[in-house]
Amino acid sequence: MKIEAIPFEDLSTPVLIEVLSWRNHPEIRKWMYTSEEITREDHLRYVKSLPDRNDCKYWLIKQDGVEIGVCSLTRINTTHRYSLGGLYAKPEGAPKGSGYRVLKELCKLAFHQLDLNLIRLEALESNLKAREFYERFGFHQEGILRDFVLRENQFESVVSYSLRKSEYEDL
């Protein structure tokens, strides 16, 4: 099985629009801090800004040439060598196990390509599926950010996780 990570800035406009449709899919969007749909113009403008930024990276993940998901590293801190990670599998038609492969690729990118020491992940407290997935993968719960996000006029807490490079290499 061949896994590829393609930077967003190397994707064609039609592929970027497909990725946007995944992000705007109700099953993905409902777990994001901002549950509103992102416009095509805002998405393309954001991707266009990525080559000039050092604080974030986004990748499309392919398995054997087939798109299976997206991962990102944001708030990259090269001094202290940590970042906040994010990921989702393609909402429809991704092979079983795609989320695991996307997260594994995210760790490889962070720890081996960018030489980070720590990845943080966050999940809405109500997103039990993501929280259990992160823990099964090997991430450690760090804490709860109480009433951290305001979504649809209600505050929701966020659970924070981390994984160190040494822990990843022991998995």
Tell me what the structure shows:
By secondary structure, the chain is α+β, with helices and mostly antiparallel strands. It has one domain: Gcn5-related N-acetyltransferase (GNAT) (Aminopeptidase). Helices cover 33% and strands 36% of the residues. It is built from 6 helices and 7 strands, in the order E-H-H-H-E-E-E-H-E-H-E-E-H. Strand 6 and strand 7 form a beta hairpin.
Write the layout of secondary structure elements.
Blueprint (H helix, E strand, L loop, with lengths): L2 E5 L5 H11 L2 H4 L10 H10 L7 E7 L2 E12 L4 E8 L8 H16 L4 E7 L3 H10 L2 E12 L2 E11 H6 L1
Parallel strand pairs: 4-5
Antiparallel strand pairs: 1-2, 2-3, 3-4, 5-7, 6-7
What features would you highlight for this structure?
single chain; 171 residues; alpha+beta; Aminopeptidase; seven-stranded mixed sheet; 6 helices; 7 strands
CATH topology type: Aminopeptidase
Task: Spell out the helices and strands N to C.
Answer: EHHHEEEHEHEEH
Distance between the termini: 19 Å
Strand content: 35-45%
Low-pLDDT runs: none
Global mean pLDDT: 97
Compute the number of structural domains: 1
The number of helical elements comes to 6
CATH 2nd-level architecture = 3-Layer(aba) Sandwich
Radius of gyration: 16 Å
Structural class, by secondary structure, is alpha+beta
Q: Please tally the β strands and state the result.
A: 7
* Share of helical residues: 25-40%
Largest sheet: 7 strands, mixed
CATH superfamily: Gcn5-related N-acetyltransferase (GNAT)
Strand order within the widest sheet?
1-2-3-4-5-7-6
CATH class: Alpha Beta
What general form does the structure show? globular
